[in-house]
Specification:
The chain is an alpha/beta fold and about 240 residues long. The protein has one domain: Carbonic anhydrase (Beta-carbonic Anhydrase, Chain A, 3-Layer(aba) Sandwich), CATH 3.40.1050. Helices cover about 45% and strands about 10% of the residues. It has helices at about 10-20, 40-45, 50-65, 75-85, 100-105, 125-135, 150-155, 165-170, 175-180, 190-210, 215-220; strands at about 90-95, 110-115, 140-145, 225-230, 240. Strands 2-1-3-4-5 form a 5-stranded mixed β-sheet, sandwiched between helices. The longest helix has 22 residues, at about 190-210. The chain starts with 8 loop residues before the first helix and ends with a strand. Mean pLDDT is about 90; it is low at about 1-25.
């Protein structure tokens, strides 16, 4: 594990920003105040995977309540351009416009790495991006985020054929097969079946990331990293966590 800071001003600041959300506002931000602070390297190093997960869950809870943080975007952009970026997590999401990752987790500039592809599956390029984000850039959590009513999933169920999209959707076919085995005869017009494929696709991606990347598997084994699955309800704004 990375070294933990001694208790002092740096640690107090970290706890103030990420340790408490009981007021309903973002941690460390008073009502009416803009959040300009960004994650520094010492703050990132002091975080644990469990603390990062708790922060993401709290952020989504604020989003669902309609109590999102007032972000000072320009100040955060200036700070990260000047001092560098130290994101706490990387989220693999879908390209769907209804799932704006930083928004639904109530995060600011420099808080998250985000990779997006139709159907939120991993490939070599995405795995390399995750290895950079975690091993080299210090993120503590990988989140695979599916969502309800996923068009890519519906396309895979229907075996859609269109240019390069055909090859893209082939990555989701294993999840379609698993769902079909337990729900035979269903189609993409059945919301329950679509959702089952969404969940199976997330579950398979979480597993495959760790199996296909020795770098990530080693970090998970040492406790420096967690790889988790979740799905986002586009109607309610709530993120549902799988097995966490």
């Amino acid at each position: 594990m990375r070294g933990v800071l001694s208790v002092g001003a740096g640690m107090v600041g970290m706890f103030a920003l990420f340790g408490c959300a009981q007021s309903g506002m973002a941690p460390g931000v008073s009502p009416g105040e803009l959040r300009s602070q960004v994650i520094t390297q010492p703050m990132q190093q002091a975080m644990t995977p469990d603390a990062v997960l708790a922060d993401l869950k709290s952020g989504n809870a604020r989003f669902v309540r309609g109590q999102v943080t007032d972000q000072d975007w320009l100040a955060q952009a200036e700070a990260t351009a000047r001092d560098g970026q130290y994101p706490k997590a990387i989220v693999l999401g879908c390209v769907d416009s209804r799932v704006p990752v930083e928004v639904v987790f109530d995060q600011g500039i420099g808080d998250l790495f985000v990779g997006r592809v139709a159907g939120n599956f991993e490939n070599v390029d995405m795995l390399g991006s995750m290895e950079f984000s975690t091993k080299l850039a210090g993120s503590k959590v990988i989140v695979v985020l599916g969502h309800t009513s996923c068009g890519a999933v519906k396309g895979a169920i229907a075996n859609a054929q269109l240019g390069n999209l055909t090859a893209t959707l082939e990555n989701i076919q294993p999840a379609v097969a698993v769902a079909t085995a337990s729900m035979p005869g269903r189609s993409g017009k059945d919301p329950a079946f679509v959702q089952r494929v969404v969940v199976e696709n997330v579950r398979a991606t979480v597993r495959d990331i760790q199996q296909r990347s020795p770098v990530i598997a080693e970090m998970v084994a040492s406790g420096d990293l967690k790889v988790v699955g979740a799905w986002y309800d586009i109607a309610t704004g709530k993120v549902h966590w799988m097995g966490n």
